[in-house]
Write a structure and sequence with these properties.
This protein is an alpha/beta fold. The protein is about 50% helix and about 10% strand. The chain contains 13 helices and 7 strands. The strands form 2 sheets. Strands 2-3-1-4-5 form a 5-stranded parallel β-sheet. Strands 6-7 form a two-stranded antiparallel ribbon. Pfam families: Sulfotransfer_2.
C-alpha cells in the first residue's frame, strides 16, 4: 500500500480513499439491515412459538376438561365479575348494557337484592354469598351487581377471587341526584312511588333549612362502599375508612370509572374483558334503552348551596376520594387509548415474548 501511494498521483490517492470510505459505509449499512432482518425474524419466530404454546395449552385444557368433569375449567368461562354499584352513579344505565349483552356473549347476570337495600351483609350471608359466587358453576361466567359494599373474598379462603369493577360520581352531584330521585323518581320506572314522593322542597331549600336529607353526612357513601364490611368504614368522617377505600380501589378493583366519563369506562372494559363486553361501546352509543335513565324534576343547586356543603370535612374527604379515583382512571386511560380527530382509539398490543426456551 505504501508503494502504491508513492506511485499514484495525489488525486488518485484521494479518489481511492473516497472509494474505500464509500465501500465501508455501504458494508455497514448492509450489516445493519441484516441485523434488523435478523431481529424481525427472531420476533416472528417468537410469536409463532407463542401461538404454538397457546394452542397446545388450549388443547391440553380441553382434553383435561373432557377427561375430568369434576374439576371446573380454569379459563374465561370460570370468570365472575362483581359490580357493587353505588346508588345514583349511572349504575342502572351501565347494568342495562350487561343485560342487553348477556345472551349474545353467553354469560349470566344476577342482581344482588338485599333487604331494605342494606349494603352490609351479616357474617352468615357473607359466607353464603362467597360460596354461591365461587361454587355456583351453572351460573358461570357471571356478572353480579347490587348495592353491596366491598367484600374481601380472601378472608374466606378463596383462591380465585372475582373481578371487581365500579363507577363513582362527583359527591355533590350524586347527592343532588339522589335527593330528587327519592321525591320524583326517574324515567326508568315512572309509575313507581318513591319514599319521599309529595315533598316539593328543592335541594337548595333543604340546604338553607339544614334538612337531614341534604346534610353533609349524606355525602358519606362512596368511601364506605369501597371500604367494605368493617365497622370503621361506616363511621362518618373516618380517615381510616378513606385510606382503606383508596387501598381497595387500587389493589382490589380491576377498573373504576366515573359517571362523567362513562363511555370511556365502557370502551376500556370491552377491550379488557371482551368475553363479557364485546359490543358494549357501540351499544352505549346507539342503544335505545341502555343509558337513558334520568332523574325527574332535578334542579341544579345554587353556588351558595354548593359552597355550604364544601365547607364540611365530610365533603372534603369524599371529594378527595373522588379526585383520587378520577386521577387513577385517567392514568389507566392514558395508557390504553389515544385521541385522534376527537375520537378515542384503543392501543394495539404493545408487548411480545422472545427468547423462549427450551426450543421445541
Amino acid at each position: 500500500m505504501g508503494l502504491l501511494r508513492v506511485m499514484m498521483p495525489p488525486k488518485l490517492q484521494l479518489l481511492a480513499l473516497l472509494a474505500f470510505a464509500v465501500a465501508m459505509i455501504f458494508l455497514e449499512n448492509q450489516i445493519q439491515k441484516l441485523e434488523e432482518s435478523r431481529g424481525k425474524l427472531e420476533r416472528a419466530i417468537a410469536r409463532h412459538e407463542v401461538r404454538e404454546i397457546e394452542q397446545r395449552h388450549t388443547q391440553d385444557g380441553l382434553r383435561e376438561r373432557d377427561s375430568s368433569a369434576s374439576f371446573p375449567p380454569d379459563n374465561e368461562d370460570d370468570v365472575v365479575i362483581i359490580y357493587n354499584r353505588v346508588p345514583k352513579t349511572a349504575s342502572t344505565s351501565f347494568t342495562n348494557i350487561a343485560y342487553d349483552l348477556c345472551g349474545k356473549n353467553h354469560y349470566h347476570v344476577l342482581h344482588i337484592n338485599t333487604t331494605k337495600n342494606n349494603p352490609v351483609m351479616s357474617i352468615q350471608d357473607q359466607v353464603r354469598f362467597v360460596k354461591n359466587v365461587t361454587e355456583w358453576r351453572e351460573m358461570k361466567p357471571a356478572f353480579y351487581h347490587g348495592h353491596v359494599s366491598f367484600l374481601d373474598f380472601t378472608k374466606f379462603g378463596v383462591k380465585r377471587k372475582p373481578i371487581y369493577i365500579n363507577v363513582i360520581r362527583d359527591p355533590i352531584e350524586r347527592l343532588v341526584s339522589y335527593y330528587y330521585f327519592l321525591r320524583f323518581g326517574d324515567d326508568y320506572r315512572p309509575g313507581l312511588r318513591r319514599r319521599k314522593q309529595g315533598d316539593k322542597k328543592t335541594f337548595d331549600e333543604c340546604v338553607s333549612a339544614g334538612g337531614s336529607d341534604c346534610a353533609p353526612e349524606k355525602l358519606w357513601l362512596q368511601i364506605p362502599f369501597f371500604c367494605g364490611h368493617y365497622s370503621e368504614c361506616w363511621n362518618v368522617g373516618s380517615q381510616w375508612a378513606l385510606e382503606e377505600a383508596k387501598y381497595n380501589l387500587v389493589n382490589e378493583y380491576m377498573l373504576v370509572g366515573v359517571t362523567e366519563e362513562l363511555e370511556d369506562f365502557v370502551m376500556m372494559l370491552e377491550a379488557a374483558l371482551p368475553r363479557f363486553f364485546r359490543g358494549a361501546t357501540e351499544l352505549y352509543k346507539t342503544g335505545k334503552k341502555s343509558h337513558l335513565r334520568k332523574t325527574s324534576e332535578k334542579k341544579p343547586p345554587t353556588k351558595e348551596s354548593i359552597v355550604k356543603l364544601q365547607q364540611s370535612a365530610i365533603w372534603k374527604m369524599e371529594n378527595e376520594f373522588y379526585e383520587f379515583a378520577l386521577e387513577q382512571f385517567q392514568f389507566v386511560r392514558a395508557h390504553a387509548v389515544r385521541e385522534k380527530d376527537g375520537e378515542l382509539y384503543l392501543l394495539a398490543q404493545n408487548f411480545f415474548y422472545e427468547k423462549i426456551y427450551p426450543k421445541n
